[in-house]
Queue: 2 jobs
Job 1
Amino acid sequence: MNSYLLQFVGKWISFLVVSMTSLFGTYNLKSVEIINTNDNSNKSMNVTHKIVEYETIVNRTSKLPLNTKRIVKKGKNGLVYENNETKTVEVIKKAVNEVIELGTGPAGQFHGRLTAYGADCKGCSGTVAYRTKENKNHNLLRDGVIYNDEDYGEIRILAAPNDVFQRGTIIEITRESDEPFIGVVLDTGGALNSAWRNDQRIIIDLAFETEKDPEVYKTTSNNVKYKVLRWGW
């Protein structure tokens, strides 16, 4: 077989192998060696394709609770082509380093009470207390009760005591009979702050568009688990 054709085929076979390795992680292959004897030139050519394993970069951040890990970018193995006869190296696919964040912030486990409120409640304007990360006012009547977070996607808006949970904090909420859901702190309230300052009680309010929503009165739960996934923005 023509040596150049063999090199070309070898490259793409190796590229397929490293792609499968990155996707499934089931291969421990470090290199693939192809030896071709060219009868016309009576030369032996040794061609090696090597997988380049990605490195992991750890960034410590106080935005995450202590020892919490979050993958910012998934790593991908690379592939190089070495011609041992000509001593040349060709990069077929660059390795992509994995980047993770490791939390150094306060622990984020709480137990408390979950309540609900409507944007049209007595004395309410519908506008939440905090601006969004984009520095915009968010009105629950106009903009809805969902916020699109760059890390967690579309999640519910919460009101929480501001002495404990700063603006933009992401909280996973688990009630005894329900699946966990995620919310972002964009609002606060006097009753929530008083409960914490006076009795060290955690009360979090789940926002609804109207007090007439039947779910407002079904939401109240005691012994709710709160897990901070991110402290603020």
Note: The domain at 3-105 is CATH 2.20.230.10 (Resuscitation-promoting factor rpfb fold).
Job 2
Amino acid sequence: MLQHVLTHELPIYSKMLKFAGIGESALDERLEDLITAQTDPTIALYAKDGEVTVRISTKAAGEAEAMARLEELEERIRERGPEFMYASEDVPIEKVIVDFMADRGWTLSAAESCTGGLVAESLTSIPGSASMFLGGIICYTNQIKEKLVHIPHGLLEGEDVPGAVSGEVAEALAENVRMVMDSDFGISVTGVAGPGYAERKPVGLVYIGLAQRGKATEVHELHLQGNRETIRLRAAKALLYRLWQRLMSSKEEEQ
């Protein structure tokens, strides 16, 4: 949807492109030649809460003319990072996920440790999420990881074990929460948000897991920067981004 601003000159039309999984500086580098050469349309980047918004704007006599210009520029921008651009309107990634899964009748469950429910909160803030989000478990302690998500004690505690903050536990959390809730997808996050070390592992070390019925489970290791709240937010956003990527891969398999 185009945004329309009236001025004493030609009207200004704008469109928002949304990116996740890439920082503002990295995206700026990919678009550097387009930004340097810009006259009309113009390009502006804004970063907030683990996402980047690119606003493209043009002056035109009418909406049809503006749309043609902006769509051409949008395609050139998309080509620079198709794996990061999740929407061509001003919406959060969780809405894209909720709408996509609800349309297909797919269900999701989550096991969260260091994020403490941030992922579930962001998804359930979207109208219609009840049709796709079955529930989440905040498994903050090892005891709850064992009792509710059935993580083997041997993965969590003892000599020479992976520990709660590990790829092995992220994988087991995603797979087990999916089975416990009988959902099509299961996601997980475990990490060290700080301010101190945990299990002799550094602040910012995070693992996320994505399980899908009938498919191999993905695990991603992250090294995040910032204070406690920033790390927790970035971990939640990173998990949503990886889930979106997984959904797009599943969409391609449908075709």
Note: Strands lie at 3-5, 12-20, 42-48, 51-59, 85-87, 108-112, 133-138, 185-191, 205-212, 218-223.
